[in-house]
Amino acid sequence: MSPTEEREPLSPRRRAVLDTLRGSPAPLGVTEVADRLGVHPNTVRFHLDALVSQGRVERTAERPSGPGRPRTVYAARRGMDRGGARRYQLLARMLLGRLAAEGPGGGAAAVEAGRDWGRYLVEQFPPSRPPTAGEAAGRLTAMLDDLGFAPRLGEEDGRPDRVWLRHCPFLELAEEHGEIVCPLHLGLMQGALAELDAPLAATRLEPFAEPDACLAHLALTEAS
């Protein structure tokens, strides 16, 4: 079952068909469901087919008790209902609030978490040679673009020295808990550059340096 199908909302009629199956101690045929709901069997069959394709209902052939074709019956798939609302932003607020309560330690933990994910998310180079600063900055901005930051790379004297982040995929949370979310963003960039073994480091992040962008500062490392 795809994530889209898991979250697809059910119409009142389709919900009624599913609830009828859930309330039955044994699998039901199309006619039995139709009789209980007082609707045409073709209507029930249409909704049952959709529920089967979404993985919410199982279709089986009942063992025949005599001659003739086996009867097709349907049963609700056991498990939590995946059609309800999600509250992921509330979960994020709970976790951010807990980190924020730790004071400076919460920001440090956010940086470390960001570094771990930056190492995981960035696309690495072949191990033949270390990347140049420009190549590493390109991989960094590609990762940030995939995450929804709409980055724009800036250069001085031909070397990358800043990245404008023109969109924040966690904007409301950053406005509420910037002391946690913004260090997390900086950690993402630091972890990605470290994983690339880049001659470049993300040294500082200015939240909302301009009304429509945050600014990450880059610097060449001593090794470069």
From TrEMBL:
<protein>
    <submittedName>
        <fullName>Helix-turn-helix domain-containing protein</fullName>
    </submittedName>
</protein>
<dbReference type="InterPro" id="IPR036390">
    <property type="entry name" value="WH_DNA-bd_sf"/>
</dbReference>
<dbReference type="InterPro" id="IPR011991">
    <property type="entry name" value="ArsR-like_HTH"/>
</dbReference>
<dbReference type="Pfam" id="PF12840">
    <property type="entry name" value="HTH_20"/>
</dbReference>
<dbReference type="InterPro" id="IPR036388">
    <property type="entry name" value="WH-like_DNA-bd_sf"/>
</dbReference>
